[in-house]
Design brief:
binds guanosine-5'-monophosphate; single chain; globular; HIT family, subunit A; 142 residues; five-stranded antiparallel beta sheet; 32% helix; 3 helices; alpha+beta
Length: 142
């Protein structure tokens, strides 16, 4: 797997505007922000997509995300924001190292715009899918 731009940032080979760092997590400003304060939060562990991340890194990210969100919202004077996490090229992932976007939504025309084509869930499909996912989760215990 080729080294990603985010791995280079973790290793200090290229600069970033860092806002937070601990043993497992790094957060810095996005170079092409959708709104002021757009921040990326990444694990130091190398993993392409979230499903490949260790429980330890996932826990470290989860522990600090609310704190970073609070700081970004306070500084930008925004109370609304989106968390975006893309996995795979078809899902708009451009950098193949797990990352969470924190994107302040100060107004309707700034920040993330989302298409949300509503489907409907019939009870037979819901039962089958829920059962299958439940079984997969049970089989995937750490
Ligand atoms: P993705 O589409 O993979 O979820 O988003 C990748 C994000 O990384 C984009 O928002 C892009 O602007 C950001 N990005 C790409 N290269 C760099 C870089 O070298 N430095 C910083 N700070 N952000 C980057």
């Amino acid at each position: 797997m080729a080294e990603t731009i985010f791995k280079k940032i973790i290793d200090g080979k290229i600069p970033c505007h860092k806002v937070y760092e601990d043993d497992h997590v790094l957060a810095f400003l996005d170079i092409n922000p959708l709104s002021r304060g757009h921040t990326l939060v990444i694990p130091k562990e190398v993993a392409e997509t979230l499903d490949h991340l260790s429980d330890e890194s996932a826990a470290a990210l989860g522990r600090v995300m609310p704190r970073i969100c609070r700081a970004v919202m306070k500084v930008t004077g925004t109370s609304e924001y989106n968390i975006l996490q893309n996995n795979g090229r078809g899902a708009h992932q451009a950098v193949f190292h797990v990352h969470f976007h924190i994107i302040p939504k100060p107004s309707a025309s700034e920040g993330l715009e989302i298409g949300w084509p509503l489907g409907s869930l019939d009870s037979k499909t819901a039962e089958t899918v829920a059962q299958q996912v439940k079984q997969q989760i049970a089989a995937d215990r750490p």
